[in-house]
Amino acid sequence: MQRRDFLRLSTVSATAISLSAGAIHAASTSTNTKKRVLLPVGDAVETMDTLYPLFRLPEAGYDVVICGPEARKYHSVLHEIPPDSLIPWDITQERPGYFVTASAAFRDINPEEFCSIFATGGRAPEYLRYDKELLRLFRHFSETKKPIASVCHGIELLTAGDCIRGKRVTTIPKCRMDAEQGGATFVDDLCVRDGNVVSCKGWAEYPLLFPVYIEMLEKATS
After folding, report:
1. With a threshold of 0.90, does the pTM exceed it?
2. For residue range 104-129, what is the model confidence (pLDDT) as tens digits?
3. Superfamily of domain 10-221 in the CATH hierarchy
4. Which residue, 26, 145, 170, 209, shows the most beta carbons closer than 10 Å to its own?
5. Is 88 left (phi over 0), alpha (psi -120 to 50) or beta?
């Protein structure tokens, strides 16, 4: 069995999660637009950053809709500093992860049909932040003060979408400049909430972020 041939089919709460030949996608089954969360992806999106919300949010009753520059498969990657490397790494090493399938393109998304947007990490935000259609989506959630979550390099999308000006946020240290260039105050903490934005350093801090984020979603959709 190849590493990516992991599961044929898994159904989680309101969202069907399909892992066929390693391709992961979410198909929304809910007609309640108040319970739908956008998860933008692109090539080199971080695997752990992305899969956790894809599974955790349906457990709380929210559909996750994956979107990308186009409706197609994208390569996810694993980022970590290997503990046993013969030559030490100053930054994270990148390895292939699962494929992630976007069911919609950014340009086809009506953000009014969603209650929140989740900015996942990896290398993808470095080029996705130039996508005008994606920035249109982030500006909507900022202007309407709907919940926005960010992990790791996801802060680059919040900066590009002008979502964090005047706010306190956190991210990994090497993205501190990205946060400050967006008009935010970087806080060296594991998880920070300021208004409608909650951010954390990396996926290891998800146990701190998700209780706060889900509470924000519940208040926003009640």
Report:
1. no
2. 999 999 999 999 999 999 999 999 99
3. Class I glutamine amidotransferase (GATase) domain (3.40.50.880)
4. 170
5. beta
